[in-house]
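Model it.
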Amino acid sequence: MRWRIRTAVTLLSAIAAGVLALDSSKAWSDSATDWHPGKNQILAAAIILFISILYNLADAQLEKKRAQRRDGISVAVSEILFPLWYEVFKLSGNQRAQEELGVHVWLVPTWYGIVSRHHSIRRLTRHRFHDRSWIPPLWRAAQFRLTHPEGPTGIDWKRGKGAIGCCWRSRASRHFDMSSLWGTAELDRSTWDSLDEDEKLGFSHREYQRIFRKYGSVLVVPIFRPRHGSNPQFMGCVAIDQPPGTGMINLNQQIVKGKASAVSDHIGDAVERIL
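Modeled.
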């Protein structure tokens, strides 16, 4: 969203600057066939340029505050998240499973949380504009993993995309065993296209290829805005994952779900205090 606004402001600024340059340039002749901006056009261009300058100054300040706020959230969330990673870590005696266990917190951007805070707006976005591309991706506030078996996926985790996106869409805890869902052998495009949409978890075949060797099982638990009635606002989710082939920790067992749920409540409180 922000890059679209910045692009629009940049284009308007360029047009306005071009209009003012045409007016001030002496390289243009006074021939009747040459176009020159009128007074109203010059005034409009000057106003647009002035507003663009003000916007850029304000945007820079907002970006600075956003970065500071995110840093504060990341520190608070990391302090709460580490004990969860350690508790799940101890459930396995297998070194590889311990090293490749990942625990993360993904949060909805603050601006989207504000505009969708009212119940009527949340109902509208949930039913009429469900999973549309304009919905922003979640951002990762914290993570713990000793070893990264694969590099970043480059996927924007939006509502309906992957385990994290399914947690946002359903507003409920979910567990996914990818080998049970997709099998152990990589699927070609035709086989992938034949799967039901629910089985694809919102992925394209190209995105599936990126995550096939990275995630074996995933547990996601929602984070809700605390003390806001029976339909609280979704703030993000806690995600626990491990690569395929490890199979040493059962992420679907109640002890793991219970610990993740308790941590999600604490994170909701901590983020609410910062916001």
